[in-house]
Amino acid sequence: MPRRERRTQLMESALEVFVAQGYHAAAMDDIAERAGVSKPVLYQHFPGKLDLYLALLDESCDTIIDNCRVALESTHDNKQRVAATMEVFFEYVAGATGAFRLVFESDLTNEPAVRGHVDRVTTECAAMIAHVIHDDTGLPPDASRLLAVALVGMAQVSARFWLTEPGGISQADAAALVAGLAWRGIRGYPKSDEPKSDD
Q1: Of 91, 104, 87, which is closest to residue 19 (Cα–Cα)?
Q2: Which of 14, 22, 118, 159 could be disulfide-bonded to 93 (CB atoms 3.0-4.6 Å)?
Q3: Which residues fall within 8 angstroms of residue 145, CB to CB, at 6 or more apart?
């Protein structure tokens, strides 16, 4: 098997094991067995368990950051931007692989390298959203960033709650509910080219 394909196969197997067992309980033996390879083959691609975990984290973080970028660039209508961005987080946590658990529910967040990867989702998504808020409202960069972090936090927490809380709300309806709440808040900051309202 070509090296790139083998690496992909190993990462897919590792994701299944890490999601099912968590970092601490997972063993390289388990991952090698799941992938149908020997441990030496696994170590040819990844020097250790942490390296493999960080590679998976990178891939998972890139996915949600890239999807957030696509959502923000998909329209110039800010109401639709809010809805599209919320949908990104709900789609991500609902993914069949459970990859979101590596990012939002890692049992290794005390490890600085892992913490840095996990924080990157909030930091980079918020930076993109803050740029839109700043450009549209004229709010100072610090204020725009705080509002953006609040929106990302709302998306992450509500999506994870929706997934784990048994109930009859569909994914689309849940994302729309949270997007509606976020939009009612953020639209209170008028565009910089609009007259200020007293109410």
Answers
A1: 104
A2: 159
A3: 126, 127, 130
Radius of gyration (Cα) for the chain, nearest Å?
20
Domain boundaries 1-47, corresponding CATH code: 1.10.10.60
pTM of the model: 0.82
Q: Taking the domains of the chain in order of start, what are their residue ranges?
A: 1-47, 61-186
Please give the CATH number for the structural domain made up of 61-186. Answer: 1.10.357
| Contacts with 50 (C-beta within 8 Å, 6 or more apart), sequence order | 111, 113
What separation in angstroms does the CA of 127 have from each of 4, 19, 40, 72, 76? 32, 28, 41, 12, 17
Token pair for 182: 């976020």
pLDDT, tens digit, for every residue of 45-101? Answer: 999 999 999 999 888 889 999 999 999 999 999 999 999 999 999 999 888 678 888
Longest Cα–Cα distance in the chain: 69
What single-letter DSSP state applies at residue 166? -
